[in-house]
Specification:
Blueprint (H helix, E strand, L loop, with lengths): L2 H13 L2 E2 H10 L5 H4 L12 H4 L1 H17 L6 E6 L5 H10 L3 H6 E6 L3 H10 L6 E3 L11 E6 L8 E6 L2 E9 L5 E5 L12 H6 L5 E4 L1 H17 L1 E8 L11 E4 L2 E3 L9 E3 L4 H10 L3 E7 H7 L2 H11 L4 H12 L4 H4 E7 L11
Parallel strand pairs: 2-3, 2-5, 3-4, 5-10
Antiparallel strand pairs: 1-7, 6-7, 6-9, 7-8, 10-15, 11-12, 11-13, 14-15
Helix pairs in contact: 5-6, 10-11, 13-14
This protein binds S-adenosyl-L-homocysteine.
The site of S-adenosyl-L-homocysteine (SAH) has 18 residues, from helix 4.
Length: about 350
């Protein structure tokens, strides 16, 4: 067992099995041993690659999406451009560079980064030196006195989920406990638990024996908070993540280490842990809070509508000899068998009259 597994096993020995959500929180954000708190996981030399790390085009197009939204908002003199879970700060750096194409937007905006990891905050501060960027622990830390434009790429998939398994007796929560040898192992709550209102009744009723369903209370709470903020302050949000556009059943909890799948319980804090994002649940939460919801729309479709082909052609003309690189990045980001359809995008606005670019 690694040091964090020993800490978790001791907690379970004391107080009993913990939820999958508690396990994810400790594995990702434990102050001493957590995955995001202790390392820079991104890129070829790390564990996984995200869209902004694949190509500058991703952040640039999102920067232009934000600039367009600012115009549609009536060009407010001050706006917060906030990113949730900004990783290495690459998306924000690329977006700010693209925003310079519209100098009054760049002058109006203040970059804000919502980041839990002190280690990643340092990397972001280096990357964004001189940009005027500020940091917040959560949505509550963002300014309340001006419109907000919020971006989140692969943020919601890192939020802790709870899982429930269907047995003859009903739904039981999937927990992390200890096996006979004292190792971390999945267990079930004595239950049964009531899931009414947390997931559609039809989905629960139709689930076969041993089916697993997931909920992400933190994701819903953030979508609710975003909805309230956008209605009160004006603005919009763009959520990009891995997950199906409709509700489903199935265990989507996965660990990735050095670009390969890894046992979820084997080495907490040393592998990335994610779950599919339930876009229907996020959309419902934001809509209930009064926001207008656009999409979900496949990532490839949105990037195409935002003009990724033209951007790739411009970059290739300006950088002779790198055409193949831009073509490869474009097909990774938009290809139907690659990130183009596995990743979905959802936009939120404070009201129906502000139409976000790319969303019909
Ligand atoms: N958006 C980046 C990084 C995605 S990884 C990219 O596309 O490359 C997830 C990011 O969310 C990391 O920066 C991680 O530290 C941050 N994060 C995870 N849980 C968080 C939480 N509860 N609050 C704030 N940031 C969190």
């Amino acid at each position: 067992m690694n040091p964090l597994a020993r800490v978790i096993a001791a907690e379970i020995a004391q107080a009993g099995p913990i939820s999958v959500a508690r396990y994810m929180t400790l594995a990702l954000l434990d102050p001493r041993h957590g995955y995001y708190t202790t390392r820079d996981p991104f890129g070829a030399a790390g564990d996984f690659v995200t869209s902004p790390e694949i190509s500058q085009m991703f952040g640039e197009l999102i920067g232009l999406w934000a600039a367009d939204l600012w115009q549609r908002l009536g060009m407010p003199p001050r706006v917060a451009l906030a990113e949730l879970g900004p990783g290495r700060g690459t998306l924000m750096a690329d977006a700010l560079r693209a925003a310079r194409a519209l100098p009054p937007f760049r002058a109006a905006l203040e970059p804000w980064l919502v980041e839990a990891s002190p280690r990643l905050r340092e990397i972001q501060a280096d990357r964004l030196a001189g940009s005027g960027a500020r940091w917040a622990d959560d949505l509550d830390g963002l300014p309340g006195d001006r419109p907000l434009i919020v971006i989140a790429n692969e943020f919601f998939d890192a939020l802790p989920i709870r899982q429930y398994v269907r047995r003859e007796t009903g739904w039981h929560e999937r927990l992390v406990g200890l096996d006979a040898a004292g190792q971390l192992a999945f267990a079930l709550s004595p239950g049964p638990e009531r899931l009414d209102g947390m997931l559609p009744a039809g989905l629960l009723a139709a689930a076969p024996a041993n089916a697993i369903v997931e909920i992400c209370p933190a994701g819903r709470a953030i979508a609710t908070g975003l909805g309230h903020r956008l209605v009160a302050q004006g603005g919009g949000a763009l959520i990009v993540d891995y997950g199906p556009p409709t509700h489903g059943t199935g265990d989507s909890l996965q660990a990735v280490r050095r670009h390969a799948f890894h046992d979820v319980l084997a080495t907490p804090g040393e592998a990335d842990l994610t779950a599919h994002v339930d876009f229907v649940a996020l959309a419902d939460a934001a809509r209930d809070a009064g926001a207008t919801v656009w999409g979900p729309l496949a990532q490839g479709e949105l990037l195409q509508r935002l003009g990724i082909d033209a951007r790739a052609a411009t970059l290739a003309r300006a950088n002779p000899g790198r055409q193949a690189e831009f073509d490869a990045a474009m097909s990774r980001l938009t290809g139907p068998d690659q990130m183009g359809t596995l990743f979905q995008t959802l936009a939120l606005t404070g009201g129906p009259d502000v139409v976000p670019a790319g969303f019909p």
